[in-house]
Amino acid sequence: MIFKGLGGFGWSLIIGISSAVGVGGYGAISYLGQKTEENINSFEWKTTAKDFNPEISSAHYISKENDSKGKEVCKKWVEGKVKDMSDSECKSLIKEKWESKGLKRPSIWIESDQGSIESVLLEHFSSNDSSRTKETFKNNEWKIGDLLCKKENKGDKVEVNCSEEQEELPSN
């Protein structure tokens, strides 16, 4: 009975509202159901790392990704504090580790002493996901986002190389 008195405008209004609700519901479900991609490479160590982490005595970090000035991103931990590496220190380290040996540089490279490595990795990789713990980094290989990481003991130091999954991880 109620539908007899609607007329052309009423039916248009009902169809329009129904369409808006249907499309809006689909959009909300699509948006909320999306898996967010982790972008580990865009890590800004200086802005996300703690100002001071007493668990980290020393570490070095180099990212293949460039900063806004077109330079490599090179950082280091010294007595628990994050600092920028000088350009010459960064270039020298890159040359020593990869260029002089003809090796392909990983997307992310981290070197630390044995006692600090898990804290360094947690500090770096938990910036995007607070659910990670040191247990994540106990194995010699793990996957985070689209990166495959490999941990290698080098005497009293530990090196971690992370590269895109389809790239081959460099081994020194």
Give an account of the 3D structure.
- By secondary structure, the protein is α+β, with helices and mostly antiparallel strands.
- The chain is 30% helix and 27% strand.
- Strands 3-2-1-4-7-6-5 form a 7-stranded antiparallel sheet, sandwiched between helices.
- The longest helix has 27 residues, at 7-33.
- It is elongated.
- Residues 35-39 and 41-47 have low confidence and may be disordered.
Mean pLDDT: 76
Structural class: alpha+beta
Strand order of the largest sheet: 3-2-1-4-7-6-5
Principal-axis shape: elongated
Count of DSSP strands: 7
Helix content: 25-40%
- Unreliable stretches (pLDDT < 50, length at least 5) are 35-39, 41-47
Separation of the first and last Cα atoms = 81 Å
The tally of helices reads: 4
SSE order, one letter for each helix or strand:
HHEEEHEHEEE
Number of domains: 2
By oligomeric state, this entry counts as: single chain
Short synopsis of the structure:
By secondary structure, the chain is an alpha+beta fold. The chain has 4 helices and 7 strands, in the order H-H-E-E-E-H-E-H-E-E-E.
Descriptive labels:
2 domains; elongated; 172 residues; alpha+beta; seven-stranded antiparallel β-sheet
Topology summary:
Blueprint (H helix, E strand, L loop, with lengths): L6 H27 L11 H4 L9 E9 L5 E7 L2 E4 L2 H11 L10 E6 L3 H9 L15 E4 L2 E8 L2 E8 L8
Antiparallel strand pairs: 1-2, 1-4, 2-3, 4-7, 5-6, 6-7
